[in-house]
Each structure stands twice: as structure tokens, then as C-alpha cells.
Amino acid sequence: MEVQVMDHPLIQHKVTLMRMKETGSKDFRELLEEITMLMGYEITRDLTLEDVAIETPITKMTGKQISGKKLGIVPVLRAGLGMVQGMLNLIPTAKVGHIGLYRDPQTLEPVEYYCKLPDVEGRDFIIVDPMLATGGSASAAITLLKERGIQHIKLMCLVAAPTGVEKINADHPDVKIFVAALDEKLNEHGYIVPGLGDAGDRIFGTK
């Protein structure tokens, strides 16, 4: 499996807190935002830089700044919304798109019901979704971006199952996957084990 597990001690500590069933929605949201920031720091390590002439209070100099268009952040609705602010804390000028998918009850395949993206020309995109379980929704989201001409895509998730990673590797071998934890398996209901439950319900306090 091609996947980068970000095993920084702070990330692992916070993931453990999120897994606990007694962690409420407020703390869950805050922890997710914090982990997203920590992961975002690493996932953006390869951004292209360019020279820029500036003047400090002391002298003129050549500094570095991110070149090209700012990143595009695309949450998969609804749980992916919980990761947006963490990325915007790092890159306030990033553009945010949204992808909405639901699972067809007959075919069990993901179906698009909403897709709104910023200008895609020359922009790198990061898809964010806390859970990578079967990989169906994430794969469909990547396909939607590619159909709109986007070539540089990364996938950032909190917790993944091997099934989901293998699905993305097979469907989109060019897309790098970044996760905070790679868990054991999926159960008979499609939940990640040990996982952390339904991320959307825990973020928004629904059942």
C-alpha cells in the first residue's frame, strides 16, 4: 500500500483523544482542527517557492514566497467540513470547494449531488475527509476533480482502513494519501476498526 502515515507524537496523542467514546462534539471538532493543522504543515512541504524582493527595517533582501496560485481545499461533505478550518489557519488565502456524495441504496456506488470548485487552472488541490473506509467516496471525489482538468491532487484523511488505501492506490495511483492512523480493518457495517465511530455524527452531534 502506498500511504504516508504521519506518526508525530502530537498527532498520535490527539488521535487517541478523538477515538475515546466519551469525547464530546466540541472537543472532537477542536482536536480534528488541530490535527489537520499538524498534518497540513507536512503535506504542504513540497509547495513551490519563488524569490521575491523585499525590504526589512534594516535592508533590502531576497526572500521566498509560495509561487503560483494558492491551494484549493476540497472537503467531502459532510465530515470533511471539520478539516477545512485547520487548513485555512495555515493558508488563509486557500480557496475552498465542496463535493457532496451519497451512496446509492441499490448499487452502493457513490453518486454526486453537489460539486462547486474554485478556478482550477494551475492550482493544486487537497481533498480532505476524516475517514477513508471503503475508499468509494474518496475515489469518486478524485475522479470528479480529474474530470474538471485538475492534475495535482492529494488526499488527506484522519483514519484509514487498508481497504480504502488499496482502493485509492488501484483507482488513482498518482494521488498521494496522507493519514494520521492506518487501522486494522472494516467491520461488517463498513466502519473502520478500531476507528472512532461516525466522524460526521461526532463532529455535528447528530445520530
From TrEMBL:
<comment type="function">
    <text>Catalyzes the conversion of uracil and 5-phospho-alpha-D-ribose 1-diphosphate (PRPP) to UMP and diphosphate.</text>
</comment>
<feature type="binding site">
    <location>
        <position position="103"/>
    </location>
    <ligand>
        <name>5-phospho-alpha-D-ribose 1-diphosphate</name>
    </ligand>
</feature>
<dbReference type="InterPro" id="IPR005765">
    <property type="entry name" value="UPRT"/>
</dbReference>
<feature type="binding site">
    <location>
        <position position="192"/>
    </location>
    <ligand>
        <name>uracil</name>
    </ligand>
</feature>
<dbReference type="GO" id="GO:0044206">
    <property type="term" value="P:UMP salvage"/>
</dbReference>
<dbReference type="InterPro" id="IPR050054">
    <property type="entry name" value="UPRTase/APRTase"/>
</dbReference>
<feature type="binding site">
    <location>
        <begin position="197"/>
        <end position="199"/>
    </location>
    <ligand>
        <name>uracil</name>
    </ligand>
</feature>
<keyword id="KW-0460">Magnesium</keyword>
<keyword id="KW-0328">Glycosyltransferase</keyword>
<dbReference type="GO" id="GO:0006223">
    <property type="term" value="P:uracil salvage"/>
</dbReference>
<keyword id="KW-0021">Allosteric enzyme</keyword>
<keyword id="KW-0547">Nucleotide-binding</keyword>
<dbReference type="GO" id="GO:0005737">
    <property type="term" value="C:cytoplasm"/>
</dbReference>
<dbReference type="GO" id="GO:0005525">
    <property type="term" value="F:GTP binding"/>
</dbReference>
<feature type="domain" description="Phosphoribosyltransferase">
    <location>
        <begin position="5"/>
        <end position="206"/>
    </location>
</feature>
<feature type="binding site">
    <location>
        <position position="198"/>
    </location>
    <ligand>
        <name>5-phospho-alpha-D-ribose 1-diphosphate</name>
    </ligand>
</feature>
<comment type="pathway">
    <text>Pyrimidine metabolism; UMP biosynthesis via salvage pathway; UMP from uracil: step 1/1.</text>
</comment>
<dbReference type="GO" id="GO:0004845">
    <property type="term" value="F:uracil phosphoribosyltransferase activity"/>
</dbReference>
<dbReference type="GO" id="GO:0000287">
    <property type="term" value="F:magnesium ion binding"/>
</dbReference>
<comment type="similarity">
    <text>Belongs to the UPRTase family.</text>
</comment>
<dbReference type="InterPro" id="IPR029057">
    <property type="entry name" value="PRTase-like"/>
</dbReference>
<dbReference type="Pfam" id="PF14681">
    <property type="entry name" value="UPRTase"/>
</dbReference>
<protein>
    <recommendedName>
        <fullName>Uracil phosphoribosyltransferase</fullName>
        <ecNumber>2.4.2.9</ecNumber>
    </recommendedName>
</protein>
<feature type="binding site">
    <location>
        <position position="78"/>
    </location>
    <ligand>
        <name>5-phospho-alpha-D-ribose 1-diphosphate</name>
    </ligand>
</feature>
<keyword id="KW-0342">GTP-binding</keyword>
<dbReference type="InterPro" id="IPR034332">
    <property type="entry name" value="Upp_B"/>
</dbReference>
<dbReference type="InterPro" id="IPR000836">
    <property type="entry name" value="PRTase_dom"/>
</dbReference>
<keyword id="KW-0808">Transferase</keyword>
<feature type="binding site">
    <location>
        <begin position="129"/>
        <end position="137"/>
    </location>
    <ligand>
        <name>5-phospho-alpha-D-ribose 1-diphosphate</name>
    </ligand>
</feature>
